[in-house]
Write a structure and sequence with these properties.
Butyryl-CoA Dehydrogenase, subunit A, domain 3, Butyryl-Coa Dehydrogenase, subunit A, domain 1, four-stranded antiparallel sheet, 13 helices, 3 domains, about 15% strand, single chain, about 50% helix, Butyryl-CoA Dehydrogenase, subunit A, domain 2, binds flavin-adenine dinucleotide, alpha+beta
């Protein structure tokens, strides 16, 4: 297998570094985290770099790049500024790939160029108070009416709902249950009948979460994306993109945590020596770097499988589990190495550690991923 970085990849990564240095230097990342400021304003600049166009076909203004290149960008953004990596994933790994995979030709024509230009952020409105891991138990209804449907129900934990241009809402036909009868609709967040309340939470401050009420929200026929009743299968068909995206970005963030712990271990002196000379610290750091390298290997193997159009559901679940648990491992040990310096609010380590808590249950919990892996092993 070829792990070399092509000249084209290298140039793109240099552009990403320049973008970060200009728009998201460390103090700006901290300012946004402190102020709970999402990076929506950076979408046009990211689009100008061509980032959102990477995996799109040229007929829709895309660059036809391989998923391996996408994964390199995700990892690099995650290394410097998780908030930028996270919004990139939602625009590309979720929004673009959903429209590309099951949107109608008219929807692709209309929406993909908007995505490439950084003008379209889509938020997924799937989870409900009684439908978390068991998403197919959702009860929001899409009641057929003249010219379309009326949506009735409630969604929770919807990231970026207020700042999004469209919500991708999963709702079921009355009288159906389970995965069958669920349809997907693209709905403007300001449509009449929608109410939103922000949900206070721990960390990931640049990604606000919302509770959304749908009170007889009218959606016209052309808001349907994918065939009526096929919504759940359509959502499942793109999960490998979003899981691959999360795995790549948390791997970048995990490397940032290791780099920070390494530089602290070199600089901090106790008992007349740098703490990096103590075996307990040296072995901890060696284990941390090994965990990140393992995650990186599976992330790039998965990206290669996606680029080759290979079936990769198991590998996507594995990458999500390995990378998110690697991040938790290295931030847990990173806090121990930095000790009080990591505990200080001004430390980046406390942010990495705090934010890492979400990823083993967000984007499909790691228990559910293990269940999927076991199933694919024939159990
Ligand atoms: C910050 C944040 C952002 C989010 N963003 C979005 C979003 O944008 N859009 C959206 O639709 N949703 C979003 N979610 C929801 C997220 O996808 C759910 O939290 C996730 O699916 C888990 O559901 P739950 O929290 O209800 O946990 P539950 O399903 O109640 O699970 C609780 C525990 O039980 C375990 N468990 C459940 N079933 C099984 C099983 N069969 N076997 C073993 N263990 C099991 C779980 O792994 C977990 O540990 C977000 C959540 C958070 C916290």
């Amino acid at each position: 297998m070829d792990f070399s970085i092509s000249e084209q990849d290298r140039l793109l990564l240099e552009s990403v570094d320049r973008f970060i240095a200009h728009h998201l230097p460390p103090e700006e990342v901290r300012r946004r985290d402190d102020g709970h400021i999402p990076p929506y304003d950076l979408l046009p600049a990211m689009a100008e770099l061509g980032l959102f166009a990477l995996p799109l076909p040229s007929e829709y203004g895309g660059l036809d790049a391989s998923w391996s290149m996408v994964a390199l960008v995700q990892e690099r953004l995650g290394l410097h500024a998780y908030c930028a990596a996270s919004i990139f994933n939602r625009v590309v790994g979720f929004g673009a790939m959903s429209i590309l995979t099951y949107g109608s030709p008219a929807q692709r024509e209309e929406l993909l160029p908007e995505i490439a230009a950084g003008r379209l952020l889509i938020a997924l409105a799937l989870t409900e108070p009684s439908a978390g891991s068991d998403a197919s138990a959702l009860s929001t209804r899409a009641i057929p009416v003249d010219g379309g449907w009326r949506l009735r129900g409630r969604k929770v934990w919807i990231s970026d709902a207020e700042g999004a241009d469209l919500l991708l809402v999963a709702a079921r036909q009355p009288g159906t249950e389970g995965a069958k009868g669920i349809s997907l609709f693209l709905v403007p967040p300001k449509a009449a009948g929608i109410s939103m309340t922000g949900l206070p939470k721990v960390g990931n401050n640049c990604m606000p979460s919302f509770d959304i009420g749908f009170d007889d929200v009218f959606v016209p026929k052309d808001a349907l994306i994918g065939e009526e009743g096929d919504g759940f299968a359509n959502l499942m068909s793109t999960l490998h993109y979003s899981r691959a995206s999360m795995a790549a970005t948390v791997t970048g963030c995990a490397q940032a945590a290791v780099d920070l712990a390494l530089s602290y271990a070199r600089e901090r002196t106790q008992f007349g020596r740098s703490i990096g000379k103590f075996q307990a610290i040296r072995f901890r750091l060696a284990d941390m770097q090994m965990r990140v390298d393992q995650a990186r290997l599976i992330v790039h193997h998965l990206a290669w499988m996606i680029s080759q159009n290979q079936e990769c559901g198991r590998q996507a679940s594995q990458a999500k589990v390995i990378a998110t648990e690697a991040l938790q491992y290295v931030t847990h040990h990173g806090m121990q190495i930095l000790a009080s310096a990591g505990y200080a609010m001004e430390s980046d380590m406390q942010r990495y550690w705090r934010d890492s808590r979400l990823y083993t249950f967000g984007e499909g919990s790691n228990e559910i991923q293990r269940e999927l892996i076991a199933r694919q092993l024939g159990l």
